[in-house]
Amino acid sequence: AQDGGVWRIYTRASQVRDLAVDGDFVWAATPGGVVRWDRSDSSYRKYTTMNGLSSNRVLAVAVDGLGNKWFATGIQTVSRFDGSTWTTYPLDENLTADIIRAIAADKDNHVWLATSAGVGEFDGVDWTTYTTENSALVDDSVLDIAVDGENNKWFGTNGGVSMFDGDAWTNYTTGNSELAGDIVRAVAIDGDDKWFGTWGDGVTLFGPGGRAVGTGALAHASKVASRARTASRSTSSSQIRSPSISTTGIRSSRSRCRSSSASMSTSASSNRNPSPRRRSSPRRASSQRWQPSRP
User: Fold this and answer.
1) Biggest distance spanned by C-alpha atoms of the chain
2) Which of the 8 DSSP states describes residue 261?
3) How confident is the model over 9-18, as pLDDT tens digits?
4) Fewest CB within 10 angstroms: 97, 127, 237, 282, which?
5) What phi and psi values does residue 31 have, to the nearest 5 degrees?
6) What are the phi and psi torsion angles at 166 (to 5°)?
């Protein structure tokens, strides 16, 4: 065996799971470690367990107000990099999470984790765990986190949205608000606006003053665009056809056939009792939405 050799680790970092921007640097969380890309000269550097990272399977990344980079890994640890030294913190034993889905740093430089078993808060020394059993968190399966300008923490979950101001929780669901869907996989803050991306139900914008706007407008815009595309295709198709061919007679003939069929169907069923109509469920008044009582 040779002594004094140099060991190298070769990992694949092409599958980016999360990104965080810190000045000229873009930090990428990948299954092959951490990649730091320098936008000023397009150079990059990779960090792995050989450098001090606790695991090469990195799931999420965040940068706090002090410039520390925080990386959530697949072995239930969090690694902090201050630019020169790596420090690893195991999760709280009460946070029995199978996977960490998101990480965020608030204005107090506390680190927050969205996990499959609740929320974890790390103040640099101690962990605090929030679940549906010890708090008013709406659902233990937490999918994303965002921190607004007032240091409120917003959590997207499998059961709606929870907001935590440090003292009290406020929950928003399809039952008490205009939230488009209860499975909220993405949360983004844009000034006073909060954006919630749902799984299969579109996007909801929660505006200032408790206004819920955006879902209906987005759906309407989508329908209008779809109709416009359909009309455009129909117009294009009709322009290709020969102008000497008329479809008026065909439509009239079809219409008469439908009328005859409808008449025969009506005569045959005139002795039957008509089936009762289904009533559509009443829509909740919008004035009652986005005003949930605090738990």
Assistant:
1) 98
2) H
3) 667 777 899 9
4) 282
5) -70, -10
6) 105, -20
